[in-house]
Amino acid sequence: MQTPEVQLASPPTTIQAPCPAASCQRRASCQWRDEGAATICGETISCKDVAQHLRVHVVKRMNRGEYVVCKWQGCSASITRNNIARHIWEGPSHLGHHRDEGHLS
Question: What is the superkingdom listed in this entry's lineage (predicted)?
């Protein structure tokens, strides 16, 4: 039995393999500005390092459900402490790491 030939309406696109944020090596400058600081942090971080690096900026003894105001340059979103790393990973004006696709550019 032969398989019928399928005609595609448009050329196939390249599918990018997922890039798990927890192991991603893409690097960017931390844009977090601590309360009272004159400038942003500026330390080079990778998606993989975000959770660890945020301990420098976000109070460690907070409950997971407490809200943190994002101090990333240009952002003031209120996020639970439990989700702040994901917010930094995925925010389009932050590190831009898409949950299912990794980095698109």
Answer: Eukaryota
